[in-house]
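Quick log. Single chain, no ligands specified.
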Amino acid sequence: MLKAGVLGAGHLGKIHLRLLQESDKYELVGFYDPNKENADKVVTEYGYKYFETVESLIDAVDVVDIVTPTLSHFDCAKQAIEKGKHIFIEKPITNTIQEAEAIRTLASQNHVRGQVGHVERFNPAFTAVKDIIESPMFIETHRLAEFNPRGTDVPVVLDLMIHDIDIILSVVKSKVKNVFASGVSVISETPDIANARIEFENGCVANLTSSRISMKNMRKTRFFQKDAYISVDFLEKKSEVVKMKDAPETPDDFAMILQNAEGVKKQIYFENPKIESNNAILDELNSFADAILNKTTPIVSLTQGTEALRVAHQIIDCFSK
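-> predicted structure:
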């Protein structure tokens, strides 16, 4: 078992602590949190071991799980990597591209592995259809959330939209060509609503909308590709696949047939993939343990986390133009 420690015991940090303790791949050693009052409360309620400093926790573990505010990701990761520790780091990987590149270089130099917490990659609604998504040419995403003060220290692009950026980059096998975007600050100092259009060199276009001041929660993505439409509801954990195939000579009475202007007939087929219930955060943590033990590339590598951040900053840069 890998010895693991958590930096940051806020809302998400407490979830990571619980799941690391439940996992059969890790031995939870303890945690560090700079807020002593919160740390004492966590110790009292859950009994986890508290470390007085970041350094003492890093020295005691094999894997450092960084669940701190984004602004401190770089410093925490740098300290861990320089001591030869593997890092799991919550999204976004760091605050700046320069920091992300430095972390990636450090990890390579010190022969340690790192994974970024883009948890939607482990959402069962996505994993059920990801192998069906082939060369999508248009993608539309809506990620809307009711207002929550937590996370407003960064633009909505880094808070919410970056999940969809990562998903899109994982399925579109092409380089980004152009990025256009607009954002509006309503209640925060940074944009609360954003829309972006990402154009890829292969012709694929992705249209992304994110809001953290919505009246309801929504996390939906639609993938359009030749002869297929795939819908993923990350919130409700549901997927739907609509395929079009050449219509048979004698379709049955209930077949849905479409005919274009040239007379070509297509039959529509509906599929609802089986969704396997899971805990996505536990799955991503366990997958990282497997990558360390098997010496393989993590499912969401530091490189992929850096590329998602790069596109996110391209979007943010559009706001000031």
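The domain at 2-112 is CATH 3.40.50.720 (Rossmann fold).
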